């Protein structure tokens, strides 16, 4: 045989696409070429494949070798094709029997022929499962990740040497023990660990129930970070499909926990305000998902919100509006999912103590105003709940009383979400926060009890609510009514919603 083909794949966003690796060995001067839109990192495979073949007891054919990666219009990058290329060369040169027609091969080779971890194993295996490919070969390190998909036989190899041996003699790879820490929420992040702050906890319940983004404002040490950290645990547990979706993002980013590849907790990401644009929304020379995608189906926490640059905040608009980010490059664009709840936190002023009951603020009034104004513009349109987080009194901090557990709050959130699922069935809307103007009219304005109309009119006038905050208040009121199990929006629901507007001019 002088021609052979093996199967592999390319990553597009968080999905795998099949790629066939063909090797032809022809006569002519010794050469080794790779064609089919490989980038520079794939070209480097030639050196690794050559050395790996020699160093595992095989012979590297001194002939004219052409490797084609098909289809040619799919962009290919990274060292993941090493294994598929090496096996194709070994089969084409008659050194290994061809039994790979129903097997996809993924892995980077070291010069000594050992197989190395590659990012993206999970999407690749999911691709094989969806396309009826029976088995995969992956580096032994990636076996747990590959097996988490199910439906495909997984072989973990540590060396290229083993491809010459029959499948049956390949070592069984034991899976790591499932870790105990894989529950829905860790105890340290339970709402019950936060003393007092009942009104903030309530706002978080509303945020979780309706998918409303939240901005917390308060002095240092008032518990903003502690509270934000509890938010993922107030959301319904990930469904199996969501869990795979999230794990795909982490796999592509190379951040999956290899011993515990199944993501069972909702993600919580808290990037520092100095983060780069690519770090926040994705990008880089090998496009990787950014923090907004790593927070997919979970919570993105932006602490010290005004410190994030204007460009960073601007970049958040697309994911907040569409639930995804598209990164455009010269050679095509890539889309990553980014459907998350945003929680922002800020001090009220640069020194942190403006309006505090104990410490005096040392900032000039103009500085405070300027600081507050830094958070403005279209991004604010995407934040439905504004909440003050004051310092907790000593009495409360040391008191015996413990509040509700996350589990109790989560039960109410799940019920409210079920009401929304029924309401929006057959549409692309999932939660109240996503309602457009027509939805607001139908599900909020027309559902408002007549007795609540005067309150709405008064709020509009006396608080000077703009049209956008008018809609926001109604959406939040819808969620509060859902939490109460009520179809009509009653006066107390609206009254509570009015309290979550931003103080001062909007
Ligand atoms: N309400 C609270 N209940 C229990 N501990 C609190 C509370 N608020 C603050 N703390 C304690 O103070 C520390 C600092 O809180 P943190 O959430 O970081 O405040 P902030 O983010 O507002 O500056 C927490 O780690 C926690 O130990
Ligand atoms: Mg903090
Ligand atoms: Zn101050």
Nutshell version of this structure?
This protein has 506 residues and is α/β, with parallel strands linked by helices.
Describe this structure as you would to a colleague:
With 506 residues, the protein is an alpha/beta fold. It folds into three domains: 3-169, Ribosomal Protein S5, domain 2 (2-Layer Sandwich); 179-397, P-loop containing nucleotide triphosphate hydrolases (Rossmann fold, 3-Layer(aba) Sandwich); 432-506, Orthogonal Bundle (Helicase, Ruva Protein, domain 3). 35% of the residues lie in helices and 17% in strands. The chain contains 20 helices and 16 strands. The strands form five sheets. A five-stranded parallel sheet has the order 11-12-15-10-16. Strands 1-2-4-3 form a four-stranded mixed sheet. A three-stranded parallel sheet has the order 5-8-9. Helix 5 links the parallel strand 8 (135-139) and strand 9. Helix 6 (198-210) runs parallel beside helix 16 (406-423). Bound molecules: adenosine-5'-diphosphate (ADP), magnesium ion and zinc ion. Magnesium ion binds at residues 224-225, 303.
Tell me about the largest β-sheet: 5 strands, parallel
Q: Provide the list of bound ligands, each named once.
A: adenosine-5'-diphosphate, magnesium ion, zinc ion
What percent strand? 15-25%
Query: Considering the protein shown, what is the CATH homologous superfamily of the largest domain?
Result: P-loop containing nucleotide triphosphate hydrolases
Number of domains: 3
User: So what's the oligomer here?
Assistant: single chain
Secondary-structure content class = alpha/beta
């Amino acid at each position: 045989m002088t021609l052979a083909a093996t199967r592999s794949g390319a990553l597009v966003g968080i999905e795998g696409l099949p790629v066939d690796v063909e090797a032809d060995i022809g006569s002519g001067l010794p050469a080794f070429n790779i064609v089919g839109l490989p980038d520079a990192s794939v070209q480097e495979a030639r050196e690794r494949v050559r050395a790996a073949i020699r160093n595992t007891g095989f012979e590297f054919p001194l002939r004219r070798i052409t490797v084609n990666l098909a289809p040619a219009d799919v962009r290919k990058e990274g060292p993941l094709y090493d294994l598929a290329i090496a096996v194709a060369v070994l089969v084409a040169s008659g050194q290994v029997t061809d039994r790979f027609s129903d097997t996809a091969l993924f892995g980077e080779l070291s010069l000594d022929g050992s197989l190395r971890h590659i990012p993206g194993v999970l999407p690749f295996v999911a691709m094989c499962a969806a396309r009826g490919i029976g088995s995969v070969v992956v580096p032994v390190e990636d076996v747990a990740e590959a097996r988490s998909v199910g439906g495909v036989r997984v072989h973990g190899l540590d060396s290229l040497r083993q491809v010459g041996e029959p499948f049956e003699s390949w070592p069984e790879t034991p899976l790591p023990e499932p870790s105990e820490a894989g529950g829905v929420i860790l105890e340290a992040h339970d709402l019950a660990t936060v003393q007092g702050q009942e009104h903030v906890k309530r706002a978080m319940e509303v945020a979780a129930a309706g998918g409303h983004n939240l901005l917390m404002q308060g002095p240092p040490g008032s518990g903003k970070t502690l509270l934000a950290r509890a938010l993922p645990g107030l959301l319904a547990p990930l469904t199996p499909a969501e869990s795979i979706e999230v794990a795909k993002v982490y796999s592509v980013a190379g951040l999956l926990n290899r011993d515990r590849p199944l993501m069972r907790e909702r993600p919580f990401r808290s990037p520092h305000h100095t983060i780069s644009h690519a770090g926040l929304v994705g990008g880089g020379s090998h496009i990787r998902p950014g923090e907004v995608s790593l927070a997919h189906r979970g919570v993105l926490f932006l602490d010290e919100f005004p410190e994030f640059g204007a460009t960073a905040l601007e970049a958040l608009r697309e994911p907040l509006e569409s639930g995804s980010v598209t990164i455009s490059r010269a050679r095509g664009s890539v889309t990553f999912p980014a459907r998350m709840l945003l929680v922002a936190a800020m001090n009220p002023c640069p020194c942190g103590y403006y309006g505090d009951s104990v410490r005096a603020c040392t900032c000039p009034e103009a500085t405070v105003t300027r600081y507050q104004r830094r958070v403005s513009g279209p991004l604010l349109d995407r934040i439905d709940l504004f909440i003050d987080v004051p310092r907790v009194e000593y009495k409360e901090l040391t008191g015996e009383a413990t509040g509700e557990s996350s589990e109790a709050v989560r039960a109410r959130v799940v019920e409210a979400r079920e009401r929304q699922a029924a309401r929006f069935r057959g549409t692309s809307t999932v939660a109240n926060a996503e309602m457009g103007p027509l939805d607001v009219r139908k599900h909020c304005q027309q559902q408002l009890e007549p007795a609540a109309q005067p309150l709405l009119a008064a709020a509009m006038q006396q608080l000077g609510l703009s049209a956008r905050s008018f809609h926001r208040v109604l959406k939040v009121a819808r969620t509060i009514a859902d939490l109460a199990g009520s179809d009509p929006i009653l006066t107390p629901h609206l009254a509570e919603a009015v309290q979550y507007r931003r103080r001062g001019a909007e």
